[in-house]
């Protein structure tokens, strides 16, 4: 994984625009899928997502990046104090300038950011998950929270009652659906990255599922692909798709200018599951990703779905 270029430690005179440009470059570098989605957004919203992406990526890199072995609980405690400084309006490093500006534009709450750090603390201490409920907590913290952060930027569309007595506008905040998309993305990411995670001694697949499908940890570490593996993976894929389906129901509640980007990001990431199936569940020898032509095929389909009420 590419290392984030070191941001300048002190904020000499970098501008807000240069900070957002740095965030744009990082998002484009690390996640083609989400970057493509942000390009479909109005400028203020896509810059805000870039700022959030970089904070999330830097947080993840503390435990997942090249310097992870230097990271301790104290490191994450300090990172949380840095977060509090950002929410107090005091950026400490160049990219923070973009997030401070984003916080002035959008009603972001600090709690999902704190929960993301709590998820990274889990990664420091755990490399096995006994049940899906255990894994769900981890997925909520590292990915469901991203849905909550994103929702604050994406916005919701007021629904004006159609009948005479429904003159007041009602807002339905698709919170659960946003969390569901985060969970779906994380479950997809786990299935895509099974190979590289086992190389680091990590198993995110619930051990209760391995037992249920009679597939051992030893077989997993040896990358054994047999009928039990295929059935175990298909079970995981179907569960991830259930979360995508729940998420889809919430997109119609988002602001109109957020629906195409979110449908696009959802379809692109969900497409990874189809690639895993096409690859016969071989996630050990090849990385499942959606080829560029297919990514651009999804764009008009996502647009049509974003128009449907
Ligand atoms: C289009 C849009 C609004 C996207 C949001 C982009 C964003 C801010 C993503 C942050 C991702 C990130 C770096 C989180 C840190 C922890 C982590 C790595 C989480 C996993 C992401 C994988 O990213 P990537 O594929 O780059 O990882 P690799 O290094 O390549 O393995 C996660 C899988 C979490 C992703 C979760 C989301 C993007 C949340 C999606 C939910 C919404 C956008 C809410 C939409 C609203 C409704 C109502 C459905
Ligand atoms: N972490 C990684 N390890 C190895 N190869 C990668 C990694 N990330 C991307 N690639 C490679 O980059 C190319 C694009 O893959 P992909 O679309 O997944 O990019 P990405 O930036 O990781 O997008 P996303 O993270 O949103 O899935 C592919 O050739 C893929 O193999
Ligand atoms: Mn990536």
Automatic annotation (TrEMBL):
Q: Does the keyword Hydrolase apply?
A: no
Please give the PROSITE patterns that the UniProt record associates with this protein. SQUALEN_PHYTOEN_SYN_1 (PS01044), SQUALEN_PHYTOEN_SYN_2 (PS01045)
Question: What is this enzyme's EC?
Answer: 2.5.1.32
> Would I find Transferase among this entry's keywords?
yes
- For the protein in the UniProt heading, the enzyme class is transferase
Question: What keywords tag this UniProt record?
Answer: Carotenoid biosynthesis, Transferase
Q: Which reaction does it catalyse?
A: 2 (2E,6E,10E)-geranylgeranyl diphosphate = 15-cis-phytoene + 2 diphosphate
A molecular function GO annotation? squalene synthase [NAD(P)H] activity
| Associated pathway | Carotenoid biosynthesis
Domain of life where this protein originates: Bacteria
Give the Pfam families listed for this entry: SQS_PSY
Q: Which GO terms describe its biological process?
A: carotenoid biosynthetic process
Q: Which family does it belong to?
A: Belongs to the phytoene/squalene synthase family.
Q: What is this protein called?
A: 15-cis-phytoene synthase
Could you tell me which species this protein originates from? Euhalothece natronophila Z-M001
């Amino acid at each position: 994984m590419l290392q984030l270029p070191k941001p300048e430690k002190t904020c000499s005179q970098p501008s807000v625009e240069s900070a957002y440009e740095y965030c744009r470059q990082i998002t484009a570098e690390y996640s083609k899928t989400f970057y493509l989605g942000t390009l479909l957004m109005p400028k203020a919203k896509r810059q805000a997502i870039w700022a959030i992406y970089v904070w999330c990526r830097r947080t993840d890199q503390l435990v997942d990046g090249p310097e992870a072995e230097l990271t301790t609980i104290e490191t994450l405690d300090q990172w949380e104090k840095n977060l509090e400084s950002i929410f107090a309006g005091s950026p400490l490093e160049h990219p923070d300038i973009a997030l401070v500006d984003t916080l002035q534009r959008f009603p972001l709450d600090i709690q999902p950011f704190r929960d993301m750090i709590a998820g990274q603390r889990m990664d420091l201490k755990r490399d096995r998950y006994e049940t899906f409920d255990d894994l769900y907590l981890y997925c909520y913290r590292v990915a469901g929270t991203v849905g909550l952060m994103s929702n604050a930027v994406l916005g919701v569309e007021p629904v004006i009652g159609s009948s005479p007595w429904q003159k007041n506008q009602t807002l339905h905040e698709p919170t659960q659906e946003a969390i569901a998309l985060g969970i779906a993305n994380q479950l997809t990411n786990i299935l895509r990255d099974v190979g590289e995670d086992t190389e680091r001694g990590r198993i995110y697949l619930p051990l209760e599922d391995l037992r249920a499908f009679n597939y051992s940890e030893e077989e997993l570490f040896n990358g054994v692909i047999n009928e039990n593996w295929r059935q175990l993976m298909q079970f995981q894929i179907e569960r991830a798709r259930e979360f995508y389906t729940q998420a889809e129901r919430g997109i119609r509640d988002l602001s109109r200018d957020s629906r195409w980007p979110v449908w696009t990001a959802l379809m692109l990431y969900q497409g990874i599951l189809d690639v895993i199936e096409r690859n016969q569940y071989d996630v050990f020898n090849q990385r499942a990703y959606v080829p560029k032509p297919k990514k651009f095929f999804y764009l008009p389909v996502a647009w049509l779905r974003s128009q449907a009420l």
